[in-house]
């Protein structure tokens, strides 16, 4: 979850990276008593995310800066809308502006792309989810942005759920172990609250996985025909997730095969920063 503690830790690190010994330009050129107002305005339509992150960039630079976030996360906006306004000591506003803007652009870009995927599968019943293909250190931020766009989150980390992928199954097979028996043994060792998901890349792998009674089966890089066959074969005995080869052009067809979940790495690894502007007016 995107808590205040997480926001402050990540934003403080970004500010320290950007101005490790202070903003020498603002300190040399801007009078200490000057004040400034920065207005966050989009130059293209989109979905907003990261209001609290944007505000933290200014508050952590100087607590005297006041930030009014006018758009709630998940709000659609048009060019020219005022999303947020920051007012305070001019030196502090100028120091914080790039970090605040970077985060707002990045997170709004993810939210906007996610919203497009969600709209593309509307009415199918399929849920759009993200993956662990996130920017190191920014997972909580980027996954919040996915939720802002109407999407859902997959497991947050390797510690949250069991997910046996092709490499795990390959190790079992080379060791001469039964996939079913290995999964049943894992279930016996794990708490009953731990969810188990297994990735398969062929239809003939399904029966061994189904025999273990796992919660979710991921059909990875399946053709549309094989997805339909997989859904029919699983027949409600597990949640069906589709992954691989997902784009805005293909996601509707994938959803219409009857899968329950579609995981899309592109939501975070390929979203472009949205074009937002931060207009600064200095007084005094």
Folded structure, characterized:
By secondary structure, the protein is α/β, with parallel strands linked by helices. The protein folds into 2 domains: 4-118 and 271-283, Quinolinate phosphoribosyl transferase, N-terminal domain (Aldehyde Oxidoreductase, domain 3); 120-269, TIM Barrel. Helix content is 42%, strand content 19%. The protein contains 11 helices and 12 strands. The chain has helices at 4-18, 24-29, 51-61, 90-120, 139-148, 166-174, 179-189, 206-210, 224-234, 251-255, 266-269; strands spanning 35-42, 46-47, 66-69, 76-77, 84-89, 127-129, 162-164, 196-200, 216-220, 239-243, 261-263, 276-283. The strands form 3 sheets. Strands 6-11-10-9-8-7 form a 6-stranded parallel sheet. A 4-stranded antiparallel sheet has the order 3-5-1-12, with helices on one face. Helix 10 links the parallel strand 10 (239-243) and strand 11 (261-263). Helix 1 (4-18) crosses helix 3. It is elongated, with a radius of gyration of 23 Å. The two termini are 40 Å apart. Keywords: Glycosyltransferase, Pyridine nucleotide biosynthesis, Transferase. This is nicotinate-nucleotide diphosphorylase (carboxylating). Residues 110-279 form the Quinolinate phosphoribosyl transferase C-terminal domain. GO terms for molecular function: nicotinate-nucleotide diphosphorylase (carboxylating) activity. It catalyses: nicotinate beta-D-ribonucleotide + CO2 + diphosphate = quinolinate + 5-phospho-alpha-D-ribose 1-diphosphate + 2 H(+).
């Amino acid at each position: 979850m995107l808590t205040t503690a997480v926001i402050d830790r990540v934003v403080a690190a970004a500010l320290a990276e950007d101005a490790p010994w202070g903003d020498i330009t603002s300190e040399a050129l801007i009078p200490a008593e000057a004040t400034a107002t920065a207005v966050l305005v989009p130059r293209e339509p989109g979905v907003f995310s990261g209001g609290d992150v944007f505000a933290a960039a200014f508050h952590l630079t100087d607590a005297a800066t006041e930030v009014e976030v006018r758009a709630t996360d998940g709000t659609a906006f048009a060019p020219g809308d005022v999303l947020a306004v920051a007012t305070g000591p001019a030196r502090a506003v100028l120091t914080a502006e790039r970090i605040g803007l970077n985060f707002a652009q990045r997170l709004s870009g993810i939210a906007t792309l996610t919203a497009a995927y969600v709209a593309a599968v509307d009415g199918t019943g399929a849920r759009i989810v993200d993956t662990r293909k996130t920017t190191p250190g920014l997972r909580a931020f980027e996954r919040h942005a996915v939720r802002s766009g109407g999407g859902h989150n997959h497991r947050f980390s390797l510690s949250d759920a069991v997910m046996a992928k092709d490499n795990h199954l390959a190790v079992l097979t080379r060791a001469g172990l039964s996939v079913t028996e290995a999964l049943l043994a894992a279930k016996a060792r794990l708490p009953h609250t731990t969810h188990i998901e297994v990735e398969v890349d062929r239809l003939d792998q399904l029966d061994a996985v189904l025999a273990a009674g796992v919660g979710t089966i991921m059909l990875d890089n399946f053709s549309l025909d094989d997805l339909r066959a997989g859904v029919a074969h699983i027949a409600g005995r597990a949640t069906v997730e589709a992954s691989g080869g997902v784009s805005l052009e293909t996601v509707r067809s994938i959803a219409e095969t009857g899968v329950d979940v579609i995981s899309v790495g592109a939501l975070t690894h390929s979203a472009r920063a949205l074009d937002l502007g931060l207009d600064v007016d200095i007084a005094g």
